[in-house]
Amino acid sequence: MTGRRNAHNGNEGEPNMNQRLLTTNIVLTLLLALVSLPVFAGNKVDVCHIPPGNPDNWHTISVSSNALGAHLGHGDLEGSCAGNCETLCDDQNACTQDIESDFDECICNAEPRPAVDCDDSNPCTVDGCNSEFGCTYDAAAANGTACDDGDPDTSDDVCTDGVCAGTSASFCEGQIDGTACDDGDPTTVNSTCQSNVCADSGDCVNGVPTFPIPGIPLVICECSPFWTGEFCDVPQCTQQEVDDCAQEILSDPFISAQCITISCTPTANDPSCSFSLANEFESCDDPHAFPECGEVSEGCVCQTGGCLPGI
After folding, report:
1. Which of 129, 147, 175, 199 could pair covalently with 179 via S-S, beta carbons 3.0-4.6 A apart?
2. Do 135 and 127 meet the contact criterion of CB atoms below 8 Å apart?
3. What residue segments make up the domains of the chain, in order of their start?
4. What predicted TM-score, i.e. pTM, was given to this entire model?
């Protein structure tokens, strides 16, 4: 009994298995904590720091991502200063060149800043600049301005809606007005010589183009009979058809020619006849329906298309 107790007591100074495991777990936990410290501290990010008391002394710094919100909150910009150069140098004027360099660092142009180049190399636009929107190009303001279209066979070159174009005058020199010619514009038709200038005669579909101002390509169409409209493309009734319409409408005894306007519209078959009221409640002297209306003094007036005794 005594030997066993002494043998048992002889093991009391040695750590058991549970103690070894506990020690190992503590060591591993500490190691993991040390490895994780950079993560808790946050990754580094670039910030363009703008000192509140000296805003022109901006410079790029690296801070913990956990501190990014605080930096942005007092006016810093996320990213490097070179990457934010457009914002840093913006003078709120779209007509000036703000940046001298943003390759390695942000350098703004000194005041007064150079103007942006708004030249579009088009003689038929008036170039300008709006401080809010930037370059402007006004084609209408240049209309009528003399220019050179680069074609030796044209003359009287002028700007029209941003395009420089001339007239093919060489062919028309000495030609009779009305001679067909080519004005060099594929969008025009029926061009003719007018006062030694080849001009577009317009789309006079059923008529003859006229040029009321010699040498100026202003076209007025003189329509053929029974056609109307700016380009003589609206048909009209013949005089016989107009007379037939009047006879048809005035066959109604209560309709007076003095109190209506007759319209005749040509169709594929017979013309379409119609009328509209005219001279309503004005004096008339048409005895067509009422013999007593033969004299104006009788007090008859136009009412609903007829010449009726006054009420």
Report:
1. 175
2. yes
3. 44-108, 118-167, 169-232, 237-309
4. 0.39
